[in-house]
Write a structure and sequence with these properties.
Blueprint lengths: L1 H20 L1 E2 L2 E2 L3 H13 L1 H18 L10 H8 L12 H18 L4 H7 L3 H13 L5 H27 L7 H27 L6 H25 L16 H10 L1 H27 L2 H22 L9 H15 L12
Antiparallel strand pairs: 1-2
Helix pairs in contact: 1-12, 1-13, 2-5, 2-10, 2-12, 3-10, 5-9, 5-10, 6-13, 7-9, 8-9, 8-14, 11-12, 13-14
C-alpha cells in the first residue's frame, strides 16, 4: 500500500500538469477551479468503496449473526472497546472540507504557473506550518530535532523558490512574474492545508470514523462548494492573464467545450479522479500500518518521482540543477523531523 501511495500520489500531480498542457479548441486547458471540482468528484467516488464495504459486512453478518462483532474491522473493534464515539454530526466534516477546497484551489492555480517539481517541493512548507499550528491550537510540544527539521525545510523551500525566481527573471518568455505569484499561492495554500489537519484533529480527535466515509464525506462537501462557486465564477468577468480563465474568473462552459474538442482532456480528468481516490485509500491504509517515519519517506520519494517523471515527459522545460541543494535540505529536514534520521548529539535525539 505504501508503494501505491507513492505511485498514485505522484501520478496525480503529473496528470494535473499534463491536463494543464493539453489543448482544446487551440487553447491550453487552464481551469484550476474546475479541476478542483474534478478532484472532489474523485474523493466523493470513494463512497462507492465505502458502500461496497458496508454491503459486504451486512451480508456476512446476515450469514453469521453470532459472529457480528468478529466481522467488524479492527479499528471499529478497538473503538468499541475504548468506547469512542463513532457517529458525529456529518456537518462537522464540512469545516475541514472548506479548508481542503481553498488549499486545493490555490494549488491548482499555482500549478498552471510553476513547473511540477517546484510545485511539489514548495508543498514541503506544510511541514513548517503544521508544527506552529499544533503548538498554538492543540498545545503540542515540539522538541529540538523538530525545530532543526523545520529550519532545514525552510532553507530548502527558500532555496528552491529563489532558484525558480531567478530562472524566471532570466527567461525570454512573456510569463515573467507568474512563477513568483505561483510560489506565493502555494505557500499560502499550505496554511489552509495545515488548518485542515489541525481542524480534523481538534473536531474529530475523540471520534472513530471509517476512513473511507471521511474521504467520501469531505469529497461530497468539497464538490458541493464547487457546484455553488463555479456558476458564480462563470458570471464574473475578469480580464487578468494570471488569475482569470478565458474572460471570466472560471469559464466552466468553455472547459466542457474543450473537453468535447479533445477527448484526451476527458481521459486525464478520469485519471485525476482515479489517482486521487486511490491515493486517499492507500493513504488511509498506510496511516493504519505505517509509522510517521515511513510516511515521511514516501513524501520524500514522491517529490523525487515527480521531478524525474516531469523531466522525462518534458513537463519541465529546463533542469535547474541548483534546485538540488534545496531538495537536499527538504529531504534532510523531513527525515529529521519525522525521526527517520536521528542525530545523537546536542540533545537532538
Amino acid at each position: 500500500m505504501m508503494v501505491s501511495m507513492l505511485i498514485f500520489g505522484s501520478a496525480n500531480t503529473i496528470i494535473q500538469s499534463l491536463q494543464n498542457q493539453a489543448e482544446g479548441d487551440k487553447n491550453y486547458f487552464t481551469h484550476p477551479y474546475f479541476q478542483t471540482a474534478i478532484m472532489f468528484t474523485g474523493e466523493f467516488s470513494v463512497f462507492l468503496a465505502y458502500g461496497v464495504k458496508k454491503w459486504k459486512l451486512a451480508r456476512d453478518v446476515a450469514k453469521n449473526p453470532d459472529q457480528a462483532n468478529m466481522l467488524l474491522s479492527p479499528g471499529t473493534q478497538q473503538a468499541s472497546e475504548k468506547k469512542l464515539k463513532m457517529n458525529p454530526n456529518p456537518l462537522l466534516l464540512a469545516i475541514p472540507a472548506a479548508f481542503d477546497c481553498t488549499a486545493s484551489t490555490l494549488m491548482f492555480i499555482a500549478l498552471t504557473m510553476v513547473p511540477p517539481s517546484v510545485y511539489q517541493m514548495m508543498r514541503g512548507f506544510i511541514n513548517v506550518v503544521t508544527p506552529f499550528m499544533t503548538i498554538f491550537f492543540l498545545k503540542k510540544k515540539q522538541y529540538a530535532h523538530h525545530w532543526l527539521g523545520v529550519i532545514s525545510i525552510v532553507l530548502g523551500v527558500a532555496g528552491v523558490g529563489v532558484v525558480a525566481l531567478f530562472e524566471d527573471s532570466d527567461s525570454d518568455s512573456d510569463s515573467g512574474g507568474s512563477i513568483g505569484l505561483g510560489i506565493i499561492l502555494i505557500l499560502v495554500a499550505q496554511f489552509f492545508a495545515g488548518g485542515l489537519f489541525v481542524v480534523e484533529e481538534y473536531l474529530l480527535g475523540d471520534y472513530y470514523l471509517d476512513p473511507l466515509k471521511v474521504v467520501g464525506l469531505e469529497g461530497m462537501f468539497g464538490l458541493s462548494y464547487c457546484l455553488v462557486m463555479l456558476p458564480i465564477m462563470q458570471a464574473v468577468r475578469c480580464d487578468g492573464d494570471k488569475l482569470c480563465q478565458f474572460g471570466y474568473v472560471e469559464n466552466s462552459s468553455y472547459a466542457f467545450y474543450q473537453m468535447a474538442d479533445n477527448g484526451i482532456i476527458i481521459l486525464l480528468s478520469f485519471g485525476i479522479m482515479l489517482s486521487i481516490a486511490a491515493y486517499n485509500v492507500s493513504g488511509i491504509t498506510t496511516t493504519k500500518v505505517a509509522s510517521a517515519a515511513q510516511r515521511a519517506t514516501i513524501d520524500t520519494s514522491r517529490t523525487l518521482t515527480v521531478w524525474l517523471v516531469s523531466l522525462a515527459l518534458g513537463l519541465e522545460k529546463d533542469f535547474y540543477w541548483q534546485s538540488i541543494f534545496g531538495f537536499i535540505f527538504l529531504v534532510f529536514g523531513t527525515l529529521v523531523y519525522n525521526e527517520v534520521v536521528v542525530l545523537p548529539f546536542c540533545g537532538l535525539d
